[in-house]
Amino acid sequence: EVQLVESGGNLVQPGGSLRLSCVASGFTFSMHAMNWVRQAPGKGLEWVGVINSGETKLRYRDSVQGRFTISRDNAKNTLYLQMNNLKPDDTGVYFCAPSSWGAWGRGTQVTVSS
Q1: What is the pLDDT of residue 102?
Q2: Rounded to the nearest 5°, which phi and psi values hold at 54?
Q3: Are strands 11-12 and 108-112 parallel, antiparallel or unpaired?
Q4: Strands (DSSP E) along 1-114, which ranges?
Q5: CB 49 within 8 A of CB 58
Q6: Whether 112 contacts 94, CB under 8 Å
Q7: Which of 5, 68, 83, 108 could be bridged to 64 by S-S, CB 3.0 to 4.6 A?
Q8: What Cα–Cα distance (Å) separates residue 4 from each residue in 15, 23, 28, 59, 60?
Q9: Can you tell me the distance from the alpha carbon of 50 to that of 29, in angstroms, rounded to the nearest whole number?
């Protein structure tokens, strides 16, 4: 029932930008804090950032702060991740996930070439 569909990943040069989207369904999206999580090749999940349901609080891991921005459109059940000044270490599969449980979609691949 719960579905999270990430999109927008691509191959980009270092310093480039991407905007990822996550379309959610099967739950009341607007009532949940939403996170972006990523998985680099051969590594485990790494938390990227979170936006609360009221869109008044944003938190990011230190390595992306100032470069990434999370936003949401509750009317469209969609979460966004604007990524600027991308670095090779940002390479990985990006997932969206609610804070209240450990569900996520299939992810979208971001590859930053060097």
Answers
A1: 81
A2: -85, 0
A3: parallel
A4: 3-7, 11-12, 18-25, 34-39, 45-51, 58-60, 68-73, 78-83, 92-98, 108-112
A5: yes
A6: no
A7: 68
A8: 28, 6, 12, 21, 21
A9: 14
Structure tokens at 57: 């609080």
Q: Beta strands 34-39 and 3-7: pairing type?
A: unpaired
10 Cβ neighbours under 8 A, 6+ residues apart: 18, 109, 110, 111
d(CA 99, CA 15): 30
Q: How far apart are CA 10 and CA 97, in angstroms?
A: 20
- Whether the Cβ atoms of residue 113 and residue 39 lie closer than 8 Å to each other: no
**Where does residue 73 rank: exposed (0-12), middle (13-18), buried (19+ CB within 10 A)?**
middle
